[in-house]
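Structure ticket #2291
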Amino acid sequence: AIHQLDARVPTIVITADDTAGTAIEAMKVGAFDYLLKPLDFNQVRSLVTRAVEIRRLMRVPVSLQMDLDGPERIDLLVGRSPAMQEVYKAIGRVAARNVTVLIHGESGTGKELVDRAIYQHSPRAAGRFLAVNCAAIPEALLESELFGHEKGSFTGADSKRIGKFEQCSGGTLFLDEVGDMSPMVQSKVLRLLQEQRFERVGGNETIETDVRIVAATNRDLESMVADGKFRGDLYWRLNGFPIHLPPLRQRGDDVILLLEHYLKIFSRELN
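Resolution: structure written out below.
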């Protein structure tokens, strides 16, 4: 009922049922997470903080800085250089198309801002947006994070878990640093892109989903493919529409715009 009003609201289910059947069903239809009683309030605070941040990422629009005298905002793509104008054009061309996007760029160039701009200007903007940093999650846990797992499928899997591909059905999933995925995860992601179907870790139930993937990397995936470190078939699936984010050293006077932008923000924050 909540998601009929707004599918982007992160919903946390609290249950006293230690089999967590109700909570798992809620996760299947899009709950953000669930907690078992008795509650660990540090865990509650951490989970609510993450949920609020995800809601902010979905609700606060990414915009272009056209007026330097306007209000200071963090969720802003700053730049008027020809290289950045090409990025803005690419966002406009691809946002409404239901294709995978691969964003190339060095660390710090703003890949997540570009991903969120694509999401917000797409027909899926009313659906969920979730982000997974493939480099920040241990290899052993990334597969479970993306695809979920069945109870008892590995040590510590004391309950069923719904993964991001299932939670985000109807929305957009941002896979950051895809070059860090293990061969096993690469294989499962390839199948999902081909068929929009997958199985949870330790399960044999085939689950269908409808998720748009936008991926990003700071690595040279073509070289990794040539060296046998990344699947070529997955690379071409992810690279449905490439966007290159230029480093600041190639953006001319954008450095002045960024300095002015951050000076205004820090002046306000530091009083």
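Closing remark: The mean pLDDT is 88.
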